[in-house]
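Suppose you are handed a protein chain with no further information: no name, no annotation, nothing but its sequence. What can you learn? This example shows the usual starting point.
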Amino acid sequence: MNSNDTDPLAFSFSEPERAAIHKVIRSRRDVRRFLPNPMPDEVLRRILEMAHLAPSVGFMQPWNFIVITDAELRRQVKAMFEQVNAREAARIEDPARQELYTRLTLEGILEAPLNLAITCDPRRDAPFVLGRAPMPETDLFSTCLAIQNLWLAARAEGVGVGWVSILDRPATERLLQLPPGVRLVAYLCVGYPIEFRSRPMLEEVGWKDRQPLGDLVFQDRWGVRSGLFS
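A reasonable first move is to predict its three-dimensional structure. Written in structure tokens, the prediction is:
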């Protein structure tokens, strides 16, 4: 059989397998409220293994995973969140929207059984990383792919993940004693959730609706709508 005779569906998954993958993606949520139940080590290992299988530019694998269980360290991170969150709330000019913001649960730092800090080390494989020089940010992009893998693997295990971005990044990096050049990309709360919402929380409370996919897909160049969704 030559290449022209290859079945285009030869490497596809079965319909039940595709449905399972799509279900995981559709039901992934940013989780803020957690049960106190500890997560078994074997579950955490499986989740981290899936994160480590993410693609990366030049196969540099720039990520590290810091498992945070120390209560005092987490209290310091929580205090940092509260300071930054108060500043963010003060930036909202509309009173109704500010009031809604203050009612949102935006972290579970102390409630979650553990926290994970995901870092990017741009020094890895230096000075030459295949394919990175034209787009140096791809080390960060690669780390984000590992985070997405982690998030989906966690959902498949019934584990919730919440990304806490309302932090002073340099201060958090100092708190975690990151070496010079290593960057914090994500601070995650991880554990068994009280619930997985049917829709994203910000959509449910009216903060923002999901944008129609047809408005976001262009053909050949920016602004030319694709016929896929006409």
